[in-house]
């Protein structure tokens, strides 16, 4: 028997919705057969079977929201029995001690030893009431009801709030408890033990609303009269959790460098209209920066890495992620795999296509997984310096800031300088100081700058 869990569909995704089951209980499946279609705020994906066998149980229903790591289907080996046979094993296990009780209705003397056995069995009878709460949350046949069905996310939230799972009504399949059930119980105050329950106010009309408990501290602010509340969406919650975890994990340090884009513009401006017509993508500064970045990562491989257990794990492939804004509702990071194999036109086209797919919510799970380095691009808004938060488990992230015409000192060819006006902007790298030092990060940035300023970009186009 193999239990298939909700997979991690993107680094900041914490839950997914069961869109459509492609199998039923009793179906035979082969390895890589599609089991279920899942939708998240970032991607839609088909989940294949990791093994061959028979579908024994569907643990969640279509439309259910399931936390990452929560079991969703059980695959048995061979031609397993249909679900109606599953309730039968429960009585079938008990008949072993019950061949003697079968004559009990026909013979009267045997009930006399039964009461005598009852006092001896009283110590064993004590655990029986403990089984009642589990049975209370398992109305459907064939669904396991032990506490193991509390997903990791639910267990973590219960530990944070101190709530008793036995006092929470589950709304999932078989009465299972979801994170939303925990949050609802917390908001309603129906499941809080005495030490967690708010003290009653003497004057309910003047008392402020109780503060909600959270993992971040003992209480959170609550809305007052006149405030407008905007509930966090799933993608906003996931992003917030990912960013807080990153700050708590990495030793963030920022280095910034100024770049003169005059060399880029000499190639970009004459070619941008033809490039747009031919490739359907705008020739912005971003693909030039991305191209220079992947080349610099080859020369500074420790930046294309993750921190392991007392070690730095350098990745052989350069999979470049870049942040895409979703109409100010959240961010998603599509990934260009093996980005160092692309020349500038192909890289620009691929990045534009993935950005369009991200905004149309058409990215797949592969499109947002496996990134080894990330670029975030806020420069379109004219930013000066951006200190981005590292996209875990990576060790660095590059931010591009606004490019504007500024006065610069231009060599005059005879040993002096003249005043010129060039497009200039900043590049910043946030890096994990556990992985390497500032000199290494600064040299990496300087390499990118040198390429952007001195490379023959016309030949690249």
Question: Can I get a quick summary?
Answer:
The chain is α+β, with helices and mostly antiparallel strands and 461 residues long. Helix content is 29%, strand content 21%. A hairpin with a 5-residue loop joins β13 and β14.
Any overview of this molecule?
Helix content is 29%, strand content 21%. Helix 8 crosses helix 10. The protein has helices at 89-93, 113-125, 128-136, 152-161, 179-188, 234-249, 262-279, 285-299, 344-359, 438-454, 457-460; strands at 2-5, 15-21, 28-29, 34-39, 44-48, 53-58, 65-67, 71-76, 252-260, 305-307, 312-314, 320-322, 324-325, 331-332, 335-336, 373-377, 396-400, 404-411, 417-432. The protein is elongated and about 85 Å long. The strands form five sheets. Strands 9, 12, 15, 16, 17, 18 and 19 form a seven-stranded mixed sheet that branches. A four-stranded antiparallel sheet has the order 1-8-6-3, with no helix packed on it. Strands 5-4-2-7 form a four-stranded antiparallel sheet.
SS-based class: alpha+beta
CA-based shape:
elongated
Q: DSSP strand (E) fraction?
A: 15-25%
The rounded Rg comes to 30 Å
| Elements, N to C (H/E) | EEEEEEEEHHHHHHEHHEEEEEEHEEEEHH
Report the strand count: 19
Largest sheet: 7 strands, mixed
């Amino acid at each position: 028997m193999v239990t298939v869990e909700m997979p991690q569909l993107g680094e900041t995704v914490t839950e997914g919705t069961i869109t459509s089951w492609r199998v039923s209980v009793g179906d035979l499946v082969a390895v890589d057969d599609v089991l279920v279609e899942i939708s998240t705020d970032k991607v839609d994906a088909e989940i294949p079977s990791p093994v061959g066998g028979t579908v024994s149980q569907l643990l969640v229903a279509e439309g259910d929201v399931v936390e990452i790591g929560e079991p969703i289907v059980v695959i048995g080996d061979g031609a397993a029995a249909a679900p109606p046979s599953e309730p039968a094993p429960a009585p079938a296990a008990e008949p072993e001690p019950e061949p003697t009780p079968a004559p009990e209705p026909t013979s009267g003397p045997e009930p006399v030893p039964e009461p005598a056995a009852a006092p001896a069995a009283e110590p064993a009878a004590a655990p029986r009431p403990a089984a009642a709460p589990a049975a209370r949350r398992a109305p459907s046949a064939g669904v396991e009801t032990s506490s193991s069905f509390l997903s990791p996310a639910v267990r973590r939230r219960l530990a944070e709030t101190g709530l008793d799972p036995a006092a929470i009504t589950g709304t999932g399949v078989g009465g299972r408890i979801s994170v939303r059930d925990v949050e609802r119980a917390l908001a309603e105050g129906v499941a809080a033990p005495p030490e967690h329950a708010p003290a009653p106010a003497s004057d309910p009309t003047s008392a402020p609303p109780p503060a909600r408990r959270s993992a971040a501290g003992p209480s959170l602010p609550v809305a007052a009269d006149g405030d407008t509340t905007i509930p966090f969406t799933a993608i906003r919650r996931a992003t917030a959790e990912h960013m807080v975890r990153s700050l708590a994990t990495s030793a963030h340090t920022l280095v910034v460098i100024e770049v003169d884009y005059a060399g880029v513009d000499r190639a970009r401006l004459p070619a941008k209209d033809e490039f747009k017509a031919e490739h359907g993508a705008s020739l912005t500064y971003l693909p030039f920066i991305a191209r220079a970045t992947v080349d610099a990562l080859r020369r500074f491989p420790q930046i294309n890495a993750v921190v392991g257990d007392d070690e730095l794990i350098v990745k052989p492939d350069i999979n470049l992620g870049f942040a895409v804004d979703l109409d100010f509702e959240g961010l998603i990071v599509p990934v260009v795999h093996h980005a160092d194999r692309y020349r500038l036109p192909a890289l620009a086209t691929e990045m534009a296509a993935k950005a369009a797919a991200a905004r149309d919510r058409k990215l797949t799970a592969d499109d947002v997984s496996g990134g080894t380095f990330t670029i975030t691009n806020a420069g379109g808004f004219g930013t000066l310096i951006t200190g981005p938060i590292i996209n875990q488990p990576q060790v660095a992230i590059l931010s591009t800031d606004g490019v504007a015409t500024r006065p610069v000192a231009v060599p005059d060819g005879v040993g002096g300088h003249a005043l010129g006006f060039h497009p200039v902007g900043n590049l910043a790298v946030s890096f994990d100081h556990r992985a390497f030092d500032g000199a290494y990060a600064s040299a990496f940035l300087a390499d990118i700058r040198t390429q952007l300023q001195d490379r023959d970009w016309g030949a690249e186009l």
